[in-house]
Design a protein that fits this description.
- The chain has helices at residues 13-22, 59-72, 75-81, 84-94, 100-109, 111-120; strands spanning 39-41, 53-55.
- The protein is built from six helices and two strands, in the order αββααααα.
- With 121 residues, the chain is mainly alpha-helical.
- Helix content is 51%, strand content 5%.
- The longest helix is centred in the middle third of the chain and has 14 residues, at 59-72.
- The chain has a two-stranded antiparallel ribbon.
Amino acid sequence: MAVAPPLPDEPSAEAVLRARCACRLPEHLTDLAGPAHGTVGLPLHVVWSGLRSFDLDRPRSRMSLYRAALAEGQREDLIAFLDPDLLLAQWPVLRTLISRSIRDVWESRFTELAARASSAA
């Protein structure tokens, strides 16, 4: 059975993912109002299986929360669960744990993240 080639007007999966990610971003990093300490429980639409509770005072747990929120969170989730200072501090490592699409969209919108990445290299 032959598979038809994609239509010329059909966007690539990469383009769809980038557009989906871009529309979820806050306007400014300072819009992020998440906690910097304590335990945070993510809703099912962000983490639908496995661990849903994360201790922000434990680096690996915090990194897992940020990774899940960046990948699956809606704009309201990003604002509610991410702290701008923690995001900036973790970005050099966190950017290696998320998809290229998500990383590129965030670094394109927020030059301070791109600057953190290049200064850590």
